[in-house]
Task: inverse folding
């Protein structure tokens, strides 16, 4: 069965960096696009970024463009999110989600990122 | 990249039907038949309930249905059950190849 397991969350100071990982299994990772979606405490879902199956194209929400970078290693079936210049408003649970055009058919359980001094 | 507009809350009694609206623009909801709906219970990851406006994944009750008219999509839940109480989010593909979510709707079963 499809499994997505996020890791790498934690507490970081404003202006700091963090890299999230999402280990995928149960499907042919290299054949599907992948997303990051976040949810601030008590708030709604916010789409963050998308990467095509082969990494050829990447798309970002305006709120993270220029600060976050999505990438993937198909040989390791792993998705990444490099987060730089973090702000308190980036505090959220970050989910990775598998794309089945054009919706999210499987989600991980999320990893919490807290940006605070 | 403005969020799609959903009512903050809806409620209904067991057995009744409710509808949640999701309003966007011609660049997202109105321009593509790629609207999906997600159910989220507290502390859990979202679960896909409807995709491509009106299609149900296997395993989702046929009490859930979706539709679209112009820039507004809708999720209807018929025969409300206590287990349907959750937050519901719509999402759409956009003309910029990005995705956008609605603000979410809290469904209360009275």
Result:
């Amino acid at each position: 069965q499809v499994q997505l397991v996020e890791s790498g969350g934690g507490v970081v100071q404003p202006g700091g960096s963090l890299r999230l990982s999402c280990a995928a299994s149960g499907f042919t990772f290299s054949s599907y696009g992948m997303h990051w979606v976040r949810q601030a405490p008590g708030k709604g879902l916010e789409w963050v970024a998308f990467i095509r199956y082969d990494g050829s194209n990447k798309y970002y929400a305006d709120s993270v463009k220029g600060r976050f970078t999505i990438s993937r290693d198909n040989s390791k079936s792993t998705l990444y999110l490099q987060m730089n210049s973090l702000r308190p408003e980036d505090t959220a649970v970050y989910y990775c989600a598998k794309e089945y055009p054009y919706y999210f058919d499987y989600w991980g359980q999320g990893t919490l990122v807290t940006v605070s001094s | 990249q403005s969020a799609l507009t959903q009512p903050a809350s809806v409620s209904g009694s067991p057995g009744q039907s409710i509808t949640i609206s999701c309003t966007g623009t011609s660049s997202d909801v109105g321009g593509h038949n790629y609207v999906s709906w997600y159910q989220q219970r507290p502390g859990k990851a979202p679960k896909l309930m409807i995709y491509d406006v009106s299609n149900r994944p296997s395993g989702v009750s046929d009490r859930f249905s979706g539709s679209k008219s112009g820039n507004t999509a809708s999720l209807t839940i018929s025969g409300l059950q206590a287990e349907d109480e959750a937050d519901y989010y719509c999402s759409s593909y956009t003309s910029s190849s990005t995705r956008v979510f609605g603000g979410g709707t809290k469904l209360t079963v009275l």
Summary: The longest strand of chain B covers residues 86-93. The mean pLDDT of chain B is 96.
